Amino acid sequence: MSSITTTHWGSYRARVENGRLVGMDPVEWDRDPSPIGQSLPEGITAPARVLRPAVRRGFLEGGAASREGRGSEPFVEVEWDEAIALVAAHVDRVRKTHGNSSIFGGSYGWSSAGRFHHAQSQVHRFLNAFGGYTYVRDTYSNAAGRRILPYAIGELDTLRPKQTNWSVLAEHCELFVSFGGLPTRNAQVNPGGANDHAVPYWIDQLAQRGVEFVNVSPVRDDMGTVPSAQWLPLRPGSDTAVMLALCHTLIAEGLYDRAFVATHTVGFDRFSDYVLGRTDGQPKSCEWAAPLADVDAQALRTLARRMAARRTLVNIAWSLQRALQGEQPFFALVALTALLGQIGTPGGGIGLGYSAFNDIGNGRNGFSGPRLPQGRNPVPDFIPVARISDMLLNPGAPFEYDGKPYVYPDIRLIYWAGGNAFHHHQDINKLIRAWRRPEAIFVHEAYWTAQARFADVVLPATVMVERDDIGSASGDGFMTAMKRLVQPIGQARDDYDIFTAISARMGDEMAFTEGRDVMQWLKFLYEESFGRAESMGVSLPPFEEFWARGHLEYEWPARPQVLLEGFRADPAAHPLETPSGRIELFSERLHAYGYEECPGHPVWHPSDEFLGDARARQFPLHMITPQPATRLHSQYDHGKVSRDSKIQGREPMKMNPDDAAARGIRHHDVVRVFNDRGAILAGVIVTPDVRTGVVQLSTGAWYDPLEPGLVGTLDKHGNPNVLTPDRPSSRLGQGCAAQSTLVQVERWNGTLPEITAFGPPPMVARP
Ligand SMILES: Nc1nc2c(c(=O)[nH]1)N[C@H]1C(S)=C(S)[C@@H](COP(=O)(O)OP(=O)(O)OC[C@H]3O[C@@H](n4cnc5c(=O)[nH]c(N)nc54)[C@H](O)[C@@H]3O)O[C@H]1N2
Ligand SMILES: Nc1nc2c(c(=O)[nH]1)N[C@H]1C(S)=C(S)[C@@H](COP(=O)(O)OP(=O)(O)OC[C@H]3O[C@@H](n4cnc5c(=O)[nH]c(N)nc54)[C@H](O)[C@@H]3O)O[C@H]1N2
Ligand SMILES: [Mo]
After folding, report:
1. Ligand 2 in reach of 141 Cβ (< 6 A)
2. Looking at residue 477, what is its pLDDT?
3. Residue from 186, 235, 314, 724 to probe ligand 2 pocket by mutation (most atoms less than 8 Å from CB)
4. Cβ atoms of residues 518 and 524 within 8 Å
5. Lowest mean pLDDT among 329-338, 472-481, 697-706
6. Which residue has the higher pLDDT, 734 or 559?
7. Cα–Cα distance list, 290 to 179, 482, 552 (Å)
8. Is residue 108 flagged as an active site residue?
9. What is the pLDDT of residues 562-578, one digit of tens each?
10. Which residue lies with its CA nearest to atom 4 of ligand 1?
11. Could you tell me which residue, 473 or 543, shows the higher pLDDT?
12. Of the candidates 519, 418, 530, 521, which has an alpha carbon nearest to the alpha carbon of residue 479?
């Protein structure tokens, strides 16, 4: 039997034999299938699966009193009925005693593809049915950038699906400069599903047509698909200085587009006064930026002149804004591309994340497909998503966000499904301390991730091939009938089924289910999307036909798009979403907030997690933590594809030969990577593809503490978030600052502790 199924990294024909998933064959039309699918057949039955409901021993004995035992105590497996009753009782007690704002239900995380069983939506819907929860704003992906852009050029969510299509760039672009490169490993992934991986094809098309590429990144293979690309190996976190220097050259040499600046921007004078040094006595010249970025001043000047002379697109990777003052590189990019005056032209302008996902610039803009209604949340409390530890540690404390003051709620209960904070959040040792605060922590998981191990009650969830669902990605033009292919393992249940049972126990099943079973929901959600489909010119067949066919591809839009074409042609008729309707090189509104670290125009302030800072004398290597090539975040780290990439069982870390030699480190040695926040083990790849002073370690290795539950213990496996700072990008965006991390590295000469993350935690019989 073979049936198409959808993952965040591609569509596959799943092969099933004797009730077991035995193969994941890429669909024929996928131009560059992702290998990650190969982790599924073994992965979904691996020892890491959660098979039965499990309760932390101390919680079963003494409830909240034992919360210090999170992460260290063994679990007791219980019957479903008991687990459901326990969870329902605590949710009910907490909401009635402390109010719904004391329930943290943000539940950030990617879950699996599939629109109905989207775990985060399921939690939100459940909690909303019972009075709501404290929610989160923005994402780990893009918070700083997403908050600054509306002041400078407009909402990211509006611009993202309108990015100039690759096909247009292939015809019109001459110079493609990318800060953070174009790592095609990231384009394996697309939120909701990737149906045809076309990014490597298009990059190749551009290269064949003579487009010149410049990779501005500490890592050469961030543009590994274009061997001829020029590499400008700057220090991490110095991009803003480089962009300001490029602006300086354009202004000082009169190369900027005066006409475009006059008609399409506001605030040029304030910005150029800063760039030219009239406000602070420091011209932001190439000579100024060169030692900050550790690149050649002449190379910067030449680049600025080339950019002005050609049809140039300047792209930025999202990672640049996952940093202290991460707003600034995005703001500076807007300024730089505005001065170049090519915004709205077919081959030039601004790029916000080409190759970060498969859909950016692919030209497939479909409609927003089926989605589970989450209900209404009457609780006003929220946090910017990356402030979770601060919220738990400082109830009642004030914080600023996007120009307004707020207060952290007092959280008593955390409910999570479909995410992994012990993967995604910074400074895990601080998170462990924060995690001891709430009275109860409930997690639905398919696998024994650290998130599950640090919970009080873990409820075993199904994975996508164990249930019926609809796969659909708004930006990738397809829909899949994701049919149940195998029986759920152990006692795993769908999140929907679990929430239905808890709702019934809490006395109102209908509030959550509206009386629909899974197939009735799928049909309902499918039909509910007809209107949105029609408005985008897509006509969908009846549900039964879709379900029988198994896969739909929508028509391509009639005409490829050019970002901000209308605005360029007539800024009055097609204003931007900024306060003035134009590009703002200086924002009065932002200026009025009075944030020194994020003022009215792009600025460079050195941070203390930067190679140019005194802290680098103690921790002389800048660690950057990109998305992993072999998995999606932490998902399927236990799978074959990811595990095959490990070095002596540890996560690989790239290091420059000079830095390795200076420490007596050889290729494939295991090292201890540390700073004042913690220590991890990693396996070294010695390569000249990363500049000196920088190490690159992907995110997503499952946190594997030597002494589980203990603050400050060694992570045996290589989770970089043990080392990253839990500090906000700025008061504006409050984004995570994962990329701003200084470390030291030494060879590990001790015996290698065994990796234990991929099996279940210790289980004991009922006390
Ligand atoms: N240092 C550093 N940290 C980072 C980043 C970085 O660049 N550097 N990047 C950040 C970014 S961009 C992101 S988006 C985040 C990602 O962070 P997350 O989205 O939290 O990471 P995932 O590993 O995708 O976690 C999803 C979890 O959901 C579970 N799951 C999947 N399907 C289901 C389901 O149907 N039901 C239930 N109950 N569970 C399910 C999976 O098993 C997995 O454990 O990480 C952030 N963290
Ligand atoms: N295979 C795979 N693909 C994915 C994901 C995954 O988990 N696996 N996750 C998806 C998600 S959720 C997201 S949000 C996107 C994220 O997309 P991005 O944020 O763009 O991706 P990253 O890999 O974090 O960073 C891209 C590159 O930026 C470089 N970089 C880091 N710091 C700096 C700096 O200071 N300056 C410069 N110039 N370059 C720097 C790094 O070398 C890195 O390779 O990726 C998506 N794609
Ligand atoms: Mo992300």
Report:
1. yes
2. 83
3. 186
4. no
5. 472-481
6. 734
7. 16, 53, 52
8. yes
9. 999 999 999 999 999 99
10. 424
11. 543
12. 530
DSSP assignment letter at 264: H
Q: Please report where in the chains the tokens 């589980």 appear, as a residue.
A: 708
Residue with tokens 């594809």: 641
Return the pLDDT at 53.
98
The pLDDT of residue 339: 98
Token duo for residue 687: 């390569």
Residue 366 reports pLDDT greater than 80: no
Lookup result for tokens 């036909």: 545
Q: Supply the pLDDT for residue 2.
A: 65
- The angle at the Cα of 169, spanning 154 to 475, to the nearest 5 degrees, equals 55
- pLDDT tens sequence across 289-315: 999 999 999 999 999 999 999 999 999
Of these residues, 12, 108, 151, 554, which one is catalytic?
Answer: 108
Q: Which of 353, 307, 310, 348 is nearest to 330 (CA)?
A: 353
Mark whether 133 is an active-site residue.
Answer: no
Q: Which residues line ligand 1 (CB under 6 A)?
A: 109-112, 117, 119, 140-141, 319, 322, 417-420, 423-424, 444-447, 449, 461, 495, 625, 632-635, 699, 720-721, 724, 738
Establish whether residue 105 lines the binding site of ligand 2, counting it when its CB lies within 6 angstroms of any ligand atom: no
Q: Which of 110, 274, 408, 636 is catalytic?
A: 110
Q: Please compute, for residue 100, the number of CA atoms within 13 A of its CA located in the half-sphere on the CB side.
A: 19
Task: Tell me the ligand closest to 177's alpha carbon.
Answer: 2
Coil, helix or strand at residue 312:
strand
Confidence of residue 708 (pLDDT cuts 50, 70, 90): very high
pLDDT band, very low/low/confident/very high, at 767 (cuts 50, 70, 90)? confident
- Residue appearing with tokens 């790592």: 183
**What are 492's two structure tokens?**
């795993």
In this structure, which residue's CA is closest to atom 6 in ligand 2? 632
Quote the distance between the C-alpha of residue 455 and its chain's center.
23
Whether 222 is in the pocket of ligand 2, judged by its Cβ within 6 Å, is yes
Q: Is 1's pLDDT higher than 70? A: no
| Burial of residue 33 (number of CB atoms within 10 Å: 0-12, 13-18, 19+) | buried
- pLDDT above 90 as % of the chain: 94
Reported as a single tens digit per residue, the pLDDT across 192-212 is 999 899 999 999 999 999 999
The answer, yes or no, to whether any atom of ligand 2 lies below 6 A from the CB of 241, is: no
Q: Given the CA of residue 625, which atom of ligand 2 is nearest to it? A: 24
Report how far apart, in Å, the C-alpha atoms of 693 and of each of 300, 496, 690 are: 20, 48, 9
Would you list the DSSP string of 493-524?
Answer: B-HHHHHHHHHHHTT-HHHHHTT--HHHHHHH
Q: Which residues contact 761 (CB under 8 A, 6 or more apart)?
A: 74, 75, 448, 453, 708
For residues 683-687, give the mean pLDDT: 98
CB neighbours of residue 412 within 10 Å: 22
Contact 320, 178 (CB under 8 A): no
- Our mutation pick for probing the ligand 1 site, out of 6, 107, 111, counting the most ligand atoms within 8 A of Cβ, is 111
Q: Distance between CA 95 and CA 80 in Å, rounded?
A: 23
pLDDT tens, position by position, 5-20: 999 999 999 999 999 9
Establish whether residue 363 lines the binding site of ligand 2, counting it when its CB lies within 6 angstroms of any ligand atom: no
